[in-house]
Amino acid sequence: MENMDLLRNISFLKDLTTGELIKINILTENVSFSEGQEIMQEGAPCEALYIVKSGSVRIMKGGTHLETVGTGEPLGEIAFIDKGPRSASVVAATDTALIRLASDKFEQALAHDKELANKIYRSIIMTLCRRLRDATQALKIIPDYVMESYKNFENI
Fold first, then answer.
1. Could you tell me the domains of the chain?
2. pLDDT at residue 110 tops 70
């Protein structure tokens, strides 16, 4: 039960009851990675969802560092949901402890509890929608940035 407090604070699990969280917690295992060790490889099939328990990880796309995330952040939820290949690689930025939720165990459990499945999938969808909205906002500034750069170049 050591992971319960962390699970309770994960955005897509926050609406679950204590009983529902216990059902999820039973399916998890704790895993550790050393600094620099690869956790997920871009393009690889998804076998699990991870939640950072301690430490931090670097999200990498095509060798480019996108962001660093730490305690409480989920990893790999896109491939976990759509069963597609990993969209990015993840490397331990420090010695890192993760909570691992295997896809097959999760699917089996949710097949027997449709109400829990609906709550979790809805929460994940809301999390992904928020991220998409944030990404869309970030993309809106690119044309202005390009035009400003072009104007600065013309003045040289």
1. 4-154 (2.60.120.10)
2. yes
